[in-house]
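Comment thread on ticket #2218

A.B. wrote:
> Attaching the input chain for the structure job we discussed in standup.
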Amino acid sequence: MGGDLERRRQNSADRRTNRDIARVEAEVARAVQQVRTQIAKEHAALGAIGSCVRAVEALPPSIPRAQRRMAERVAIRTSRLIGRLVQ
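C.D. wrote:
> Ran it. Output below, let me know if you need it in another format.
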């Protein structure tokens, strides 16, 4: 009888341990997915910011300074907006 009680206690402890392990594994999987999602967002943001930079660099040298500065301001503001969206 004492052995039967001990076996039930051990089985109960094993089930709790298995549930705890499953819960931790699920949390780790969610965290990994969140990190991957954030990395993908940041990668896309860097591509978009790079496109802004390339657009400004592609402007012809003959363009008036005021227009060049306006294009640079637009690129900077767009980059900042993208940066805020990624956070």
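A.B. wrote:
> Thanks. Noting for the ticket: The chain has two helices and no strands.
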